[in-house]
Design brief:
The chain is of the alpha+beta class and about 220 residues long.
């Protein structure tokens, strides 16, 4: 599913040359209808489609067919979007522009691997719950407003509850930075989280290391 004809032709040709049978769709509604009406081994999905967004298509496909492999290709580079799509059930995510050889290699890898199971819908640690489908958080059932980056930071900490998380790993996982830019962005976002959770001590400072999420 790709509305850019040049990219669609390039990807289709590469897949056919690799031995695959390809069906193209240039709009969201056409692509979704085709994906729901047929049993495709893999769906290649652009996020910015006319008619229906790729994010909505991903959600509806995974909801209807949890074992459907969906490969996202998108010009949206933000790590938060990539993480959200993978959490929602996408098998892979490749940012445009990309090398065709890498795309074909990744397709081969995804086709060899097992089909995905049902996407994880939520994460609960202590009184805190994250809803991955709606990207919402709650404390004891009470909704709290989080930005995407705050949500990803809280998710990282909750998935490692009780463990010390370094600033470097938080920068890499939440911001996609493989180096410390010399800013205190992690500390700023931790302060914001503490102000929104049920207790500031829920996120504990680990001296000279980083932070730890406490379940109780």
């Amino acid at each position: 599913m790709e509305d850019d004809d040049r990219i669609a032709r390039l990807v289709s040709r590469a897949l056919r040359d690799d031995g695959h049978v390809v069906e193209r769709a240039g709009t969201g509604p056409d692509g979704l209808d085709a994906a729901l009406a047929n049993d495709f081994d893999l769906v290649v999905l652009d996020l910015m489609l006319p008619g229906i967004s790729g994010v909505e298509i991903l959600d509806r496909l995974v909801g209807s067919r949890p074992d459907q492999r969906v490969f996202i290709i998108s010009a949206l580079p933000e790590i938060g979007i990539r993480v959200a799509c993978l959490e929602a059930g996408a098998a892979d995510f490749l940012v445009k522009p990309f090398a065709v050889a890498e795309f074909v290699a990744r397709v081969r890898t995804r086709m060899r691997g097992p089909a995905p199971g049902p996407a994880r819908r939520s994460l609960a640690v202590g009184p805190i719950c994250l809803d991955f489908r709606l990207h919402r958080a709650s404390v004891d059932g009470r909704p709290i407003e989080l930005s995407l980056r705050e949500f990803l930071l809280l998710q990282h900490l909750m998935e490692r509850a009780g463990q010390a998380c370094t600033r470097d790993e938080l920068l890499a996982d939440v911001w996609g930075l493989l180096f410390d830019p010399g800013s205190n962005v992690v500390d700023v976002y931790v302060r914001r989280l503490r102000a929104k959770l049920d207790a500031p001590e829920r996120v504990e400072t680990v001296r000279n290391v980083g932070y730890r999420f406490l379940a109780e």
